Amino acid sequence: MDNKGKKVRKLSLFRTRRPEMEEESENTSEKNTLIDTEIKTLGKESAIYGIANVVSRFLNFLLTPFYTHFLPTGEYGIVAGVYSYIAFINIVYHYALDQAYQQYFNNRELAFSAAIKCQMGTTALLTFVLCAFAPFWADLGGIAVKYVYFASAILVLDTVLIIPFADLQMRHKAKKFALIKSLSIIFNIALIVIFIGVLKWSIDAIFWANIAQSILQIIFVLPEFRIFSFRKQPGTEEILKKMLQYAWPLFFAEAGIMVVQIFDRPIMLKTLGESAVGIYQAAVKLGIFMQLLVNMFDTAWKPFILGRRKNKYSREDTVQLFSKIFTYFIAFSLAAWIMLSFFIGDIVQISIFGKSLFGPKYWGALDLLPMFFGAFVLHGVYVNLKASIIITQKSEISAIVAITSSLISLAGNYLLIPRLGMLGGAIMLMTSYAIMCIMMYLFSRKIYPIPYQWKKVMLLCLAAAICFIPGYLYKGAFAIPVKIICTVLYPVAIWNIGFFSEKEKQTITGYLQKRFSRFLPKK
Questions:
Q1: What is the total count of domains within the chain?
Q2: Which of 403, 429, 452 is the last residue of a domain?
Q3: 232 φ, ψ to 5°?
Q4: How many CB atoms lie within 10 A of CB 470?
Q5: Within 10 A of 497 (CB to CB), how many other CB atoms are there?
Q6: Are 422 and 367 in contact (CB under 8 A)?
Q7: C-beta separation of 299 from 169 below 8 A
Q8: Which residues, in sequence order, are CB contacts of 109 under 8 Å at separation 6+?
Q9: CB atoms near residue 383 (< 10 Å)
Q10: Is 43 in the same domain as 69?
């Protein structure tokens, strides 16, 4: 009887636990489904922003081969130098107020008006300083005075646009954002082709076309200014103070990143000359294909992170989601790195009717392409790792990381470029991004730990290296077939080394069968 009683009790306990186990299983399944849904949402908005970036940047990239055939290397070097200065001074004009606006978007009307009025005052002051002392700035930068005035006009118009564009992003108006960006860049390219290719104007036409493009964008975003008010509203000063407190560390962060990205060119302009800058710039421009992957992700990433504060997910679910996204990003970006490193250099040298995509005088830096692409992969890693500081609003950490890496970048470029030439710039670009990634990861572990799947990431890097090295080193008659084989081997490798779970494999297989079933023979 006692044994039977024990058996009954054991069976009874098992039966009482079963519903709880089923409920826990259902909750886990629901969480996984919600996480997958969140990833799909991020992917959808990244794709829409990506279309805008792909269209605008690819069309803009088409100007690079146009320039390599129509502009001497020296003139293209001047254009590259001026735009590097504009890119850096843009940080001063914007001082990250658009990102601060996104942080306080829950009080949209008040924050919008406060941000616009603040930027009107600072823009007027900065433009006065640039134009009033134009000869001084021109001499300092090694450019003609007229380019200081061109830069001032472009900077003013770009500043008008940043808050409306940030507003579109936070309202998830990705399609409108994409349309404005795409149409305006098409307009810009058309003007440049007409001005330089047809009318044979000087390189001044490039800056006039940029000014016209910005004016067109302002016309498109005018409806967004409906919520703007000159009238002083209660709480304006308080919210502006909060935005500026949030923005100032990001200003230093963006300035530091910009130093890493573009200050190798002004240093080359001073040490190697305009022609070297033109050749180097043309090769860096080819990095657009990797930059697109990073930029389309980054544009959707921050609003996605900020949205996590409002929804029903716990911290545990959030860090799991961020970890999974990080791993997928590494997988896809390494695939892009292999493919681009193998083929882009060959593509731009293909001769069609006696003309190559890039003029031969611009081929001098093509061997540096894998390093440029690798640097932009590391930039994408840094963007991912910023999740911890964005969600905790620890913007001062971005400033520390960026300023440290920028100082190392400046010192390294001044040291290496005179000795190694363009190779020195490429080395420091990769090194600086690597330092940023390491520092950001160390900080994020302390303030908001995310359990990244480092074992999977290491497997991905190992697979990428094994596939890349043979294809890169082999220079024989069958170089292209070898590169194709090595490119295909990467997805085959990650499929078989345990990167994907069985459930993920089933999902991918089902998706591919659904998409390509119409191309398969019917039984």
A1: 2
A2: 452
A3: -70, 125
A4: 13
A5: 13
A6: no
A7: yes
A8: 227, 229
A9: 18
A10: yes
Chain center to CA of 435: 17
Residues of the chain under the 50 pLDDT cut: 1, 4-26
Return the pLDDT at 211: 96
Q: What is the pLDDT of residue 75?
A: 87
Note the pLDDT of residue 255: 85
Q: Both ends of the chain: CA-CA distance in Å?
A: 63
So what's the pLDDT on residue 518?
Answer: 59
Neighbouring residues of 413: CB distance < 8 A, sequence distance ≥ 6? 263, 264, 267, 424, 425, 428
Same domain, 474 and 374: no
State the pTM of this model: 0.71
Domain housing 511:
466-515
Q: Is 96 exposed, middle or buried (0-12, 13-18, 19+ CB in 10 A)?
A: buried
Say if 391 falls within a structural domain: yes
**End of a domain among 452, 484, 499?**
452
pLDDT digits (tens, 9 = 90+) for 40-75: 555 555 555 556 666 666 666 678 778 877 888 788
Which pLDDT score, from 0 to 100, does residue 13 have? 39
User: What is the pLDDT at residue 187?
Assistant: 93
Helix, strand or coil, per DSSP, at residue 451: coil
Based on the domain organization, do 393 and 491 belong to the same domain?
A: no
Burial-class residue 232 by CB neighbours within 10 Å (0-12, 13-18, 19+).
exposed
In the chain, the largest separation of any two C-alpha atoms, in whole Å, equals 105
Say whether both 168 and 274 belong to one domain. yes
User: Which of these, 96, 85, 152, lies nearest to 119 by C-alpha position?
Assistant: 96
- Domain contains 230: yes
> 90 and 214 in contact (C-beta within 8 Å)?
no
Six-digit token string for 165 = 């564009």
**Length of the chain (residues):** 523
pLDDT of residue 136: 94
Token pair belonging to 489:
């081997």
Q: What is the pLDDT of residue 182?
A: 82
